[in-house]
Amino acid sequence: MGVRNNASVAYEVKDRKTMKFILVLSTLAILAACSTPYQETGLAGGVEATMIAPGTAQISVKTNAYTNRSTAYQFALLKAAETTLQQGYGHFQIVSQDQYAKAGSNTTYNSYTGNFQTNSFSKPRVDAIIQMFKGKKPSSAPANVFDATEIANTLGPQLRG
């Protein structure tokens, strides 16, 4: 019979904890990779800006079911800031905004149990109209007015990874 000493038991426990930690990190990395990245709109979703008048743009964000609403809103803010700067303006105001989720479901068959399972999901969307202004954001500006450079410098590195 093999007798294990305390050191080998401690190593085995530590090794199991390490493996669980690696498994959790791997799972999180895989899930994070599934979310819609910050990109121009394509098959997997993304962001889009359309100029509708001089100094006015529509920002649209379409994401997949692995992207949360907060991230979709941040995508909209970053695209608004980038558009504002590209058009030669300094700050922007969100004139109107609509956040919603496109709901859906899929049904799968489990051949082991013989049962069908329906999974529901939602895909966050943001549509906003922004008005752009020259110069720096006034200190007395309302809460829905943003400094484009500040937003681009703050959210850009976070969302582009």
The separation of the N and C termini measures 54 Å
The chain-level mean pLDDT equals: 81
Q: Which secondary-structure class do the elements indicate?
A: alpha+beta
* Percent in helix: 25-40%
- Tell me about the largest β-sheet: 5 strands, antiparallel
Contiguous low-pLDDT stretches (5 residues minimum) are none
| Succession of helices and strands | HEEHEEEH
Number of strands: 5
Number of discrete domains: 2
Number of helices: 3
What's the overall geometry? elongated
Radius of gyration: 23 Å
- Strand fraction equals 35-45%
Please state how the strands of the largest beta sheet are arranged side by side. Answer: 1-2-4-3-5
Could you characterize what this model shows?
- The protein has 161 residues and is an alpha+beta fold.
- It folds into two domains: 1-34; 38-160, no CATH class.
- It is built from three helices and five strands.
- It has helices spanning 6-34, 69-86, 148-160, and strands at residues 46-53, 56-62, 91-110, 115-133, 145-147.
- It has a five-stranded antiparallel sheet with strand order 1-2-4-3-5.
- The longest helix is centred in the N-terminal third of the chain and has 29 residues, at 6-34.
- The chain is elongated, with a radius of gyration of 23 Å.
- The mean pLDDT is 81.
